[in-house]
Amino acid sequence: MKVICAGAPKTGTKSIAQALRLLGYDTVYDVEEATEFAFEEWENIFFKKVQTFNDVMKTYCKVDAVVDVPHSLFFDEFLKKWPDAKVILMLRNNEEDWFKSFEGMVNRASKEHGHVVWFTPLSAALRRMLKWQEKLFLIAFGGFEPHSIVWKSWYRRHNAYVRETVPSNQLLEYKVTEGWKPLCEFLNRDIPDEEFPFENKAGIPRNIATKMMEDTWIAKRVKYEIKRSMIILSLVVAVGLYCFF
Q: Given the DSSP bridges, would you call strands 3-5 and 86-90 parallel, antiparallel or unpaired?
């Protein structure tokens, strides 16, 4: 592990993940990768099935950098395992900007994907995925429902804890609007010729929630189970109608 991005969600996590890839960090785990490659390991942590991070750390032993939740919530555990890693604390201009951006993301995701709860009786994998996401938000923010006072308080406390925990020579406080220069200086990398990537802007089609609902292995499992259940239900109804009439 070379880089730990400890910034909260909606502080440019997708942008910095792509920037790190462009700087030569080949294996960058974001929330999508956590869901895809370490779902069960994080599930065991969330639901207290294990009391150590040993299994999580084994999964991340060949990862170059981590970004976004759940990684940023447990940045200190990653730093204990890899004490020489550099830590980037991404920030917004102020806590109000951060809250509005995060609130907007959560509300959009709820609006676009809230209907999936209708299918929970048809898919054990869907129930499992929703419980995983719900527990993650409960641990971090107290729940899915945006709450200005609670979430802003968490944002302040999280940033303060990062500053207290990470040695100053290993910490960069950074806004993605600053572009390449401070990031490359901190990581001792040459500035690339291409423009700094700005990912997941408000209004971009196919947002992160959509990707997680469609592209991960558990999402594909959910689709398979729902399709299978619908076929079985159709057959049961057809047989029932045939017998009745």
A: parallel
Burial class for 104, CB neighbours closer than 10 Å (0-12, 13-18, 19+) = middle
Length of the chain: 245
Q: What is the pLDDT of residues 49-81, one digit of tens each?
A: 888 999 999 999 999 999 999 999 999 999 999
pTM summary value? 0.82
Six token digits for residue 14: 């997708």
Architecture of the structural domain at 3-244: 3-Layer(aba) Sandwich (3.40)
Long-range contacts of 206-211 (CB under 8 A, 24+ apart): 207/105, 207/108, 207/109, 207/112, 208/14, 208/31, 208/32, 208/105, 209/105, 209/108, 209/109, 209/112, 209/113, 210/112, 210/113, 211/32
